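Sequence dictates fold. Next comes a concrete instance:
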Amino acid sequence: MTRRTVAWVSVAVAASLLVVGGIAVTATGALTPRETGPASVPITPQTGDAEPERRTAASAAAVFLDEWVDGGRVVRRDQGGDTVSEGQAYGLLVALAADDEAAFDEIWTWTAENLQRSDALLAWRWEGGRIVDDEPASDADLDAARALALAADKWQREDLGLEADRLATVLIERMTAPVPSGLILLPGLWAAGEPAVYNPSYASPAAFSVLGQRTGDPRWAALAEGSRATTGALLDVAPLPSDWARVGSDGTVSVSGGPSDADTVVRYSYDAARLPVRYAESCDPADVALAARLAPALLREDDGRAVLDLGGSPENEERHPLALAARAGAVAGTGDIEGADRDLAAADLLSQEQPTYYGTAWTALAANLLTRSDLGGCAILPSDEATNDDGTTAPGSDAQKAGE
């Protein structure tokens, strides 16, 4: 496929200014302490000479719980054996998808005992028996609050509901910033300012809806509106969203290379690739349409390249399951169900060939979030477990619910 040169993205755009549709967009540095990203070494799979077979969404969830969770701690074995709040939140969502209440309790108990701060937010990183970075990361807090709220309903557990309420209250009060269209989610307490530091992939419309319905707080709807508008503004400037951005109180959006001033390379990679899955699972058609806007750029390459410029050209040879899962979400948003399913299958096979914490997590998450309507969003793809061997509808499947 022929590459298209996109001059404004290609990249060390340090102080350039773009104006698209009346929105000023700059590429700048920022002021924060840390950068995230899965610099991992794949674990050697134990598959022998057998060609891996595609796993169902349920089996992908079970694999993550079996291989990456130890005593309630989600262990990044491929990244030195540490634990981050993001991983604990993924574990909660995966345990919920697996309908494994015991695993959910174990993961939440470890999280609450080892990561939860006095203000209810979760410290970001734990290693060697102690917290080594106590700054919270809002994507983890948001995913955890969503999982707790859903688990409270699923298993009739008011104790989990109270934890969800506590976490949701602190999030909406301390981890958001106003913009003309509503609110945006700050990636951390350190991110407030003018402009605010922003990570587009932290926004989760489904989580906003779950917590808005549970709490009755209208600010969650404002957060959904502000996030959608900000994502739309980024996609007005470039075909793909940047991993990081800056958002002014007047709504001005600036693409960025990272959370700190030293990060100058603007790209779509391991952060931004979560965005199309999060938007494609939303029950709001406007969010699904945003996910679909990424499809043309992501379809320029066919083998799951993980690091792209904002026009969709690969920056290196890295391949990752998340890249394929992301494209599945975007392609599903366009209505191409078969193409999206092929990408989910490819993501799963790549995850089996090159097992990593992040790849296994997002293989399981994407397979479940995009095919189920009991995790706070709306299934955009058919369930891979919608029928029994005899062709009858499986109990609890989305296909069965649609027919009721």
In short: The first strand starts at residue 17 and ends at 20.
